[in-house]
Amino acid sequence: GLQGALTAPSPQDWEQRQEEDTLLIERILLLVRNVLHVPPDPTEEQGVDGDASIHDRVLWALHISGMDDLLKFLASAQVEQQWALHVLEIISLMFRDQNPEELAALGQGPAGAEHGEDTRELESLRQRELAEKRARALQRPSRHSRFGGSYVLRGLKSIGDRDVVFHKGLHSLKSYSHDLGKEPRRVPRRRQA
């Protein structure tokens, strides 16, 4: 059937595929779509909780037959783009009754639950760290004064018989000279000693 029509040994056979094969593929895809499209009947499905529904059993039968692999092949093969809408419709019907959050949790299993706990723990640690950082920021003064102070150096005369006013910190007083802050004069090479 569908597998025989799709499993071609060489690219030339793809082009020489018979019209009957194309019709067969389309009919099988439409049949699968129509089977999956049947809505659930709660009065018919009065099973025990956790029992597989008819829809789930159909999906399992498709999986056992290898139909899901064929659908993946049809969806990804460049030469089979004509079936893309049929495949998309079938896949959307396969996931019709599923909740995305539950599917994601099922895929992860117990490791996913542990990952969720780790994420929550990391988030709480991050929040605690941010709170501590905010508390430290509130304890220290909000503005840092860049003004180091001005000092009068008694005994050192500046221009006009006044005492020198020193604007740097006291720690740099040892290296004070009158030339502090001035550009050094360049002496031409031939005049250098």
Quick summary:
The chain is mainly α and 193 residues long. It contains 7 helices and 2 strands, in the order H-H-H-H-H-H-H-E-E. It is elongated, with a radius of gyration of 41 Å.
SSE blueprint:
Blueprint: H1 2-6, H2 11-15, H3 19-37, H4 54-65, H5 67-76, H6 84-94, H7 100-139, E1 151-157, E2 163-166
Antiparallel strand pairs: 1-2
Short key terms for the protein model shown above:
mainly alpha; two-stranded antiparallel sheet; TIM protein; nucleus
Largest sheet: 2 strands, antiparallel
Overall body shape: elongated
Order of strands in the sheet with most strands? 1-2
The helix-strand sequence is: HHHHHHHEE
How many beta-strand segments?
Answer: 2
Poorly predicted ranges: 8-12
Radius of gyration: 41 Å
Which percent range describes the beta-strand content? 5-15%
Number of helices: 7
Structure class: mainly alpha
Termini separation comes to 103 Å
Question: What would your notes on this structure say?
Answer:
With 193 residues, this protein is mainly α. Among the domains are: 15-41 and 51-98; 146-175, no CATH class. 53% of the residues lie in helices and 6% in strands. It contains seven helices and two strands, in the order H-H-H-H-H-H-H-E-E. It has helices at residues 2-6, 11-15, 19-37, 54-65, 67-76, 84-94, 100-139, and strands at residues 151-157, 163-166. The chain has a two-stranded antiparallel ribbon with strand order 1-2. A hairpin with a 5-residue loop joins strand 1 and strand 2 (163-166). Helix 3 runs parallel beside helix 6 (84-94). 5% of the residues are buried. Mean pLDDT is 76; it is low at 8-12.
